[in-house]
Amino acid sequence: KAGVTQTPRYLIKTRGQQVTLSCSPISGHRSVSWYQQTPGQGLQFLFEYFSETQRNKGNFPGRFSGRQFSNSRSEMNVSTLELGDSALYLCASRGTEYNEQFFGPGTRLTVL
Amino acid sequence: EDKVVQSPLSLVVHEGDTVTLNCSYEVTNFRSLLWYKQEKKAPTFLFMLTSSGIEKKSGRLSSILDKKELSSILNITATQTGDSAIYLCAVLNRDDKIIFGKGTRLHILP
Questions:
Q1: B31 neighbourhood in chain A, CB within 8 Å
Q2: Does A106 touch chain B (CB under 8 A)?
Q3: B58 has a chain A CB within 8 A of its CB
Q4: pLDDT in tens, B19-78
Q5: Is the pLDDT of residue A83 over 90?
Q6: CB burial string A51-81: b at 16+ within 10 A, e below
Q7: Are strands A5-7 and B10-14 parallel, antiparallel or unpaired?
Q8: Which of A21, A99, A101, A104 could bridge to A6 as Cys pair (CB 3.0-4.6 Å)?
Q9: Measured distance CA(B107)–CA(B110) in Å, rounded
Q10: Closest residue of chain B to A6, computed from CA coordinates
């Protein structure tokens, strides 16, 4: 089975721009979660989508949004980028049987 | 508010030493506890613990959950330089929400 894939792997943007990140879960997994990871804050939960519906949400501003498509692929959008949004963004998919999450390689976003 | 706390935040030991990493949690409707290893990019799954007192083992790594103490430990025996990584603990609750700790950064000196 192919693992979780994320695109792009690296991204450089400037303040005020917006960005869209993509995540394709493991085949058959319907849950996709997004995390932001920074050295200071560790792994912080953004949101989780299950069957195209947002199931859980972390404490991030409204500039962070996401969606999930019928094929379970998910996108995350960040609008009006700030310097503090520079981070590694990880996506994880989860099956229903064992519930452990499998992570993608991440997208490294740098905001200049 | 649900939280997961890991200790120590960082640890430096010599190859061959045994280490114990700690994870404590305050989570409503606990379902299971998970351990991950993160080396460079994506965290990789190590263990899922649901029942108290049952040790899970994989090679030199083992972990156990204590539901009474709301905690778990991850042991690594005969450490190797390849064990250097961030070890993440996470708790899954019955609403299917996963809460991660900040991780323990482990560095093994040759």
A1: 99
A2: yes
A3: no
A4: 999 999 999 889 999 999 999 778 998 999 998 888 999 999 999 999 999 999 999 999
A5: yes
A6: eeeebbebebeeebbbebeeebebbbebeeb
A7: unpaired
A8: A104
A9: 10
A10: B42
**A32, A91 in Cβ contact below 8 A?**
yes
Percent of chain B with pLDDT over 90: 75
Centre a 10 Å sphere on the Cβ of residue A38 and count the other Cβ atoms it contains. Answer: 13
Is B50 an interface residue toward A (CB < 8 Å)?
Answer: no
Taking residue B30's Cβ as centre, other Cβ atoms within 10 Å add up to 17
List % helix, strand, coil for chain A (3-state, nearest 5).
Answer: 5, 55, 45
Q: Please list every residue in chain A whose beta carbon sits closer than 8 Å to the beta carbon of residue B97.
A: 45, 48, 56
Cβ neighbours of A101 in B, within 8 Å:
34, 45, 90, 98
- DSSP state at residue B15: T
Q: Distance between CA atoms of A43 and A35, rounded to whole angstroms?
A: 6
CA distance B17 to A107: 34
Q: How far is CA A49 from the centre of its chain?
A: 10
